[in-house]
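Technical annex, item 7. During the second reporting period the consortium partners agreed on a shared format for inverse folding records so that results from different sites could be compared directly. Each record opens with the tokenized structure and is followed by the designed sequence. A conforming record, contributed by the partner at site C, is shown below for reference.
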């Protein structure tokens, strides 16, 4: 991954992480969740910034979204059933990231 991609992913993560501190209480937990979601969005939008360098990767986005959803559920103390449903939902949202990321 080159410097431009790292800057885009980190920039999205930082904006979302700092923004989450204004929406919730100021804590490292909310910053990390916002940073993770922003980084995922930055990764999903890469193909639409420069389509010659990066191609849409729905399976990679699916795995990243599922891991993010699992992290959210574990940090929030959700039950195993809810955690499983959230992981499936995250994988689905991640798989369709190439479709919704173009509207960001």
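Designed sequence (site C submission):
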């Amino acid at each position: 991954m080159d410097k431009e991609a790292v800057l885009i992913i980190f920039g999205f993560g930082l904006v979302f992480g700092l923004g989450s501190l204004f929406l919730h209480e100021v804590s490292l937990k909310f910053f990390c969740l916002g940073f993770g979601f922003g980084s995922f969005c930055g990764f999903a939008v890469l193909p639409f910034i420069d389509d010659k360098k990066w191609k849409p990767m729905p399976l990679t986005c699916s795995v990243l979204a599922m891991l993010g959803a699992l992290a959210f559920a574990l940090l929030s103390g959700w039950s195993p059933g809810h955690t499983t449903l959230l992981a499936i939902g995250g994988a689905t949202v991640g798989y369709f990231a190439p479709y919704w990321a173009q509207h960001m």
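Residues 3-103 form one domain. The radius of gyration is 14 Å. All partners now use this format for quarterly exchanges.
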